[in-house]
Amino acid sequence: MLKLEEQQSLGEASCALSEIVTKPNRSLTLDLVRRVESVSSTHSQHHGKLTVHAEECFSSRTTAEMMLSCLDLESKDLFSKCDPFLVISKLVESGISIPVCKTEVLKNDHNPTWKPVFLNIQQVGSKDSPLVIECFNFNSNGKHDLIGKVQKSLADLEKIHSGREGENLFLPTLVGHDCENKILKSKLFVENFSETVQHTFLDYLAGGVELNFMVAIDFTASNGNPRLPDSLHYIDPSGRQNAYQKAIYEVGEVLQFYDTDKCFPAWGFGARPIDGPVSHCFNLNGSNNYCKVEGIRGIMMAYTSALFNVSLAGPTLFGHVINKAALIASQSLADEAQKYFVLLIITDGVVTDLQETKDALVKASDLPLSILIVGVGGADFKEMEILDADKGERLESSTGRVASRDIVQFVPFRDVQG
């Protein structure tokens, strides 16, 4: 209820959260500054120090993995087959249930065994919090039939697993004005139950892991003539940043705090350097053998300089820069360095070497590497959505190898700007 305007300000301090959490003891001491305005000028006075300590708050890092199965499921209709799936919900104080997990639908199976499900203890409340596990028969019209259900906690499900005894499903049935639970012969079994501790981002930082930032910039001709204002590469004399500069700055500003030497590999692709053929991976700083620049400012300067020293060309190929980044990550892994690499690719258009890019990504999926693709301009980015395997199956190479994990995140810059 304190009225701040009536209080005397002793000073203020500001910093990025990353500046605190990257310190070994997660503490940072800042100077308190008070701005004093006089008729002639405004100047700052130092008024003591402020120490900020950061702690990570979490209910539980533990995740339970379960494989569930059912036996003798009943068909809801005389002539229809059973296409079962499970919905696991948590019960809240008001008595309503909130779905937290769902299995896949298994076609025509009265004794189904579903793929493992993962439940974070924090997600469900605690190991003793009641969960409702409902078994439904899938209908294409969306009106799924309830076959039966059980109400158990994670602790109960662990006991069912260790006892190897199934739990009978029940079905709420209206008898007169009352609702009774009809016990069914169908049973739920817990085939596997295990718990794992999930380490957090801050755990890795505390363990000495460093993030290393890398950037690759699209210099293909589809960006437009850099000397004209309608080009995505136009350097505005007023100092206003173009989309490429904004993406470099916004992503780099976040990541640079986690990189101790702040020396970043920076490349361009899809352009013809002076007196040379089109290159799909050239050092942004113009050097023949050294790709690193110092800080975000170094990337910005190298980018501006490159615009005056290369001719925009094409096509748009990602494979070369991904393989270059993967090589750096694999060398780091061989040296047993505690480093994780993030490659930012900024592009304006459709990738020409889609299969080669997939091959490079599948090959890199075992390495300490993530790739953030930022799409600038108004192009159709459907192929980028394919590379970002969030909405479907993992990427597959031309030899049939499936990526061990999804390492790509695609973001259209127009969706996040501002």
Protein architecture, described:
This protein starts with 16 loop residues before the first helix and ends with a helix. The chain is 21% helix and 34% strand. A hairpin with a 7-residue loop joins strand 7 (131-137) and strand 8 (145-152). It is globular. It folds into three domains: 10-51, no CATH class; 58-195, Immunoglobulin-like (Sandwich), CATH 2.60.40; 208-413, Rossmann fold, CATH 3.40.50. The strands form five sheets. Strands 11, 12, 14, 15, 17, 18 and 19 form a seven-stranded mixed β-sheet that branches. The protein has helices spanning 17-21, 121-124, 154-163, 201-206, 243-255, 295-307, 319-334, 354-364, 382-387, 413-416, and strands spanning 27-37, 42-53, 62-71, 84-91, 97-102, 117-120, 131-137, 145-152, 167-175, 178-197, 210-218, 263-269, 271-273, 282-283, 292-294, 310-312, 339-347, 369-375, 408-412.
Short characterization:
The chain has helices at residues 17-21, 121-124, 154-163, 201-206, 243-255, 295-307, 319-334, 354-364, 382-387, 413-416, and strands at 27-37, 42-53, 62-71, 84-91, 97-102, 117-120, 131-137, 145-152, 167-175, 178-197, 210-218, 263-269, 271-273, 282-283, 292-294, 310-312, 339-347, 369-375, 408-412. The chain is α+β, with helices and mostly antiparallel strands and 418 residues long. Strand 11 (210-218), helix 5 and strand 12 (263-269) form a beta-alpha-beta unit.
